[in-house]
Design brief:
By secondary structure, the chain is an alpha/beta fold. The chain has nine helices and nine strands. A six-stranded mixed β-sheet has the order 5-4-6-7-8-9, sandwiched between helices. A three-stranded mixed β-sheet has the order 1-3-2, with no helix packed on it. Residues about 65-70 have low confidence and may be disordered.
């Protein structure tokens, strides 16, 4: 049996008044579980301690962008049949997730990022490849990167041929709450799909099912992504817009390992286009 040492906090935080409105990434527990690992000892020294920062070595892979970030990816097939991948820097910390800004400012930051992806980055990719008129790009992402990719496809299907969203978070009210604001509406797929004039439904309704691929698991930390992915698929279906939905098993967690598995399955479908 695992021996866990417990050290209780001496300054517990006030408990939320309404436990039904905790907010993702906003409210934290008083304690955290920590366990060490060493090649010669394996996992050891399990303990529950007061919530606190912990040190990370500068060489830790998570600090190195090229190895760790898969927020939103753009791919393009060259004339030689090769596939080019472009990864856009994420600004979610400055917009969607920035709780220090008023909601309108956060929505403005997200909309500016959307304009950058669609009016600057995508055209630049096409220009670099001397693409023929009518050439389109596929986009893919995970977590909020899935939201960015799917948002590009839904609002600019004339520019993006399709999108793959893996473990996606599409309900921005998780971070923003519910507010009657035109720009908040414009940034929220679950809301704007039920309106007219934001998503290009005339173009989307003619698309193939595999032009929008949505996938989520049912494992650890995947509850929000599963709920949002299913909700988005339901809204699309209600609007008569095609999408391919896959919900993987209970062992599929919100993690890079499984996103890699998903991508290895869905990428060949894109290459067939």
């Amino acid at each position: 049996m695992l021996d866990i040492q417990i050290t209780k906090t001496t300054s517990p935080k006030a408990k939320p008044a309404d436990e039904s409105k905790l907010g993702f990434g906003k409210i934290f527990t008083d304690h955290m579980f920590v366990m060490d690992y060493a090649p010669d000892k394996g996992w050891h020294d399990a303990r529950i301690v007061p919530y606190q920062p912990f040190p990370l070595d500068p060489a830790c892979v998570i600090f190195h962008y090229a190895q760790e970030i898969f927020e939103g990816m753009k791919a393009y097939r060259t004339a030689e049949g090769k596939i080019q991948l472009f990864c856009a820097d994420s600004v979610d910390g400055e917009g969607v997730l920035n709780g220090d800004l008023p909601l309108r400012r956060r929505a403005e930051a997200q909309e500016k990022y959307f304009v950058y992806l669609t009016a600057e980055l995508a055209p630049r990719i096409l220009t670099l490849n001397k693409a023929e008129k009518g050439t389109k790009i596929w986009c893919a992402g995970v977590d909020l990167g899935a939201y960015q990719a799917v948002n590009c496809r839904l609002r600019r299907p004339n520019l993006f041929a399709g999108a793959v969203g893996m473990g996606g978070i599409y309900d921005l009210s998780r971070f923003w709450g519910v507010e009657n604001d035109d720009l908040v509406l414009r940034c929220s797929p679950l809301l704007y799909l039920q309106e007219n004039g934001i998503a290009n439904k005339l173009a989307l309704v003619k698309a193939e099912e595999n032009s929008l691929i949505l996938c989520a698991g049912q494992g650890a930390y995947e509850d929000d992504a599963k709920a949002d992915t299913q909700a988005l698929a339901d809204v699309l279906q209600a609007q008569g817009l095609p999408a391919h939905l896959e919900v993987w098993g209970g062992d599929v967690s919100h993690d890079w390992y499984w996103w890699g598995k998903m991508w290895s399955l869905f990428a060949p479908r894109i290459l067939e286009k």
